[in-house]
Amino acid sequence: MKKSKIPLTEKKYYLLFGFLTMIFLMWGLALTMMDVLNKHFQSVLHISKSKSAMIQFSTFGAYAVMALPVGHFMKKFGYKNAILFGLFLYAIGALLFVPAANAMSFNYFLLALFVLASGLATLETVAHPFIASLGDHRTSDLRINFAQSFNGLGGVIGPAIGSFFLLKAAQQHVEDLTAVKHLYITICLVICMMAILLVILPVSRQINHSVIRQNLKNASLTNLQPTEHLFKKKHFSFAVIAQFFNVAAQGGTWAYFINYGHEIMHFSDEKAGYFFSLSIFLLMIGRFAGTFLMRYIVPYKLLAFFAFSNIIMCLLVAQGAGWLSYIALLFINFFFSIMYPTIFSLGLKNMGTQTQKASSYIVMGVVGGAFFPPIMGLIADHDIAKAYYLPILCYLVILLFGLKYPVLNKASAGQFEFKTKNT
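Request: output the structure for the sequence above.
Response:
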């Protein structure tokens, strides 16, 4: 059977699949909004680029803290309760922005971001294996990439809203954090409405933990026994490492995107923020394009090609050569697009009944985004363009993961090969 003829998901899961894609959208919005906050706090709270990178440290550090506990929580209490718990933390974190803004305290903001990001980590740990299980295992890559496309849409909305309400406000009232308070109160209300919808809509009746576990167990590529240690699977171990470097590159690239536009292109912060939104739009386009291309190109090969492309983009960005470098900076997100979901789905192949636990470990790899931006910030304090040499190291690791994947996971490689022969 051709993989292109296999449906993305089953009809009985349409409503559930739609709700989960909305969750992907909302955490995309939150993550990219933090990169707008990075520049906003530099201006309003008068902090350096390297210090403002503590925003990324708090955000992605929460993923390392929460990933494994959420895996256990999900196993004990089920998917629905895990999603509600994630939405609760998201809403509380957004609400904590109010006292942080009143106190004009960067440290209080870091605490609020940590709580909010703990909610994001919870939702992400639950959503990926959940989405992967809603249909034929052979199209799990397509499902995750499709859902992540809405994460990209949220990423477009986030910096656009942030640039309009925060960076524009900063130009008019440099010492005023009122816009921050109002924006995050609104986000809190939206998240609360989503939690209520999850409780009252029929979609909640489809969130059955035992059924999803059975779906994972019945997949033909689930030969990992419950007693077998996760890290004996080399493709999974490398996926955790690749995800660490992938999010490290993302965190550093996004954290200083607006700074690059301001310092190299001499844009206003607001205008640079809109270009950041445009770059995330390219990311969304890349994910839709990647979802389509994966019907004809095996995922690990496409991943390797996109990683190599971003090495070229980073080399151009680091030259600080006007529009040529800036266009390359925009296209980093296009080629970055499929990396996170594809690394995730490739790492979960062959994991069977340990898929949920494996998902937790891959989410922990997101902690790379906590450590890399401060290092880039030390260079960016002196030369913002030269800081973009550092992500090249990350893309080299991802390139190696894509090239070596057939050897790391021979069973999955065999599965992928049938696709190219029959399309």
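Residues 140-172 form the longest helix (33 residues).
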